[in-house]
């Protein structure tokens, strides 16, 4: 009997062990899975591949798909860093089940490398975290441009603004073709024929800013028509205009400015003029590079060159850069004490119809509407010898902020042929 009882005891013990194993196994089956990244895309481009993705449109959102639903409260573990200046890019993160949308609060800017990190603190709704942090990187389309532009025209088979979605006026594009640009990464450029080519945009004064401002543009003029060239214009000096002189030894950007001078009337215009001769005899000029004896023409005539004009409102200093180098600087605080420039606040439209229309023109000093300079052979759009732009234009960018020397140089180094 003792033997039988002992055997029954063994059987009971085995049953208990089996029950424990069964319970333990059942718990494993119910354990939530670890959070796992399934796919990662931006505007349909795979960011989760073996190599770093390139050519990402500047206005893209990033879509991350996980194996299970994600906890919205944990998405602070997601960061996006711009490699150029190691700055965190502000983003808005939204969750819908297992899909996470990462939307930058501003455009990427072109030609920039970004590092996207999903920190180990990211959780599923069931509390499971990533087994390890995930890092991916990608590069936005085009050559490098300082982020935060107001408008950017890349001329990739159209004249649209890739930042703000602005497009030319209806019937506002004449005689434009799109050709290979200065290098493959820069894509295409707009070609102007020097006689009729023009692109017009309504509400041109929105491109100005009563504060700091900058304009960056790549231009390759064609000198075969032997004349000065109006690269672009917003009612000429009633807004702003860029002009390359017929000698190709000087160029300028003329602009209208607002001011707070209690003794001054109206707005005023002033040129950011680079004369190429090191001249400091003009009012307010504090620096001017001398390009002689070869002359500036050796740098810009029939060649791609990068032009940048910057107005820094707090300091009232205007700076001109050519191919990444500062070549001209002027200071409105060096004007007489009672002069309007001493009180300048920023660029501001001062035109009025019917003389000039509030329209930005690429390829000429003003749009085809208006009567300004109708009697001038160089300033009348329909005149045979008018100073239309003849050549190639690319990456026209307008900023409502000042750019630094380092930023301008970085743009040039990335974009140069």
Compact summary:
The protein has 417 residues and is mostly beta strands. The protein has helices spanning 2-30, 297-300, 405-415; strands spanning 37-42, 45-46, 53-56, 62-66, 78-82, 87-88, 91-96, 99-104, 113-118, 134-140, 151-153, 173-174, 176-180, 188-193, 198-202, 213-221, 229-234, 240-244, 251-259, 268-274, 285-288, 305-312, 317-322, 325-331, 344-347, 359-362, 390-399.
Write up this protein.
Mean pLDDT is 92; it is low at 1-27. This protein has 2 domains: 37-140, Immunoglobulin-like (Sandwich); 151-415, Sandwich (Jelly Rolls), CATH 2.60.120. It has 417 residues and is mainly beta. The protein contains 3 helices and 27 strands. It is elongated. Helix content is 11%, strand content 36%. The strands form 4 sheets. Strands 11, 13, 14, 16, 21, 22, 23, 24 and 27 form a 9-stranded antiparallel β-sheet that branches.
Write the layout of secondary structure elements.
Blueprint: H1 2-30, E1 37-42, E2 45-46, E3 53-56, E4 62-66, E5 78-82, E6 87-88, E7 91-96, E8 99-104, E9 113-118, E10 134-140, E11 151-153, E12 173-174, E13 176-180, E14 188-193, E15 198-202, E16 213-221, E17 229-234, E18 240-244, E19 251-259, E20 268-274, E21 285-288, H2 297-300, E22 305-312, E23 317-322, E24 325-331, E25 344-347, E26 359-362, E27 390-399, H3 405-415
Parallel strand pairs: 3-10
Antiparallel strand pairs: 1-2, 1-4, 4-8, 5-6, 5-9, 7-8, 9-10, 11-27, 12-15, 13-14, 14-27, 15-26, 16-22, 16-27, 17-18, 17-26, 18-19, 19-20, 19-25, 21-24, 22-23, 23-24
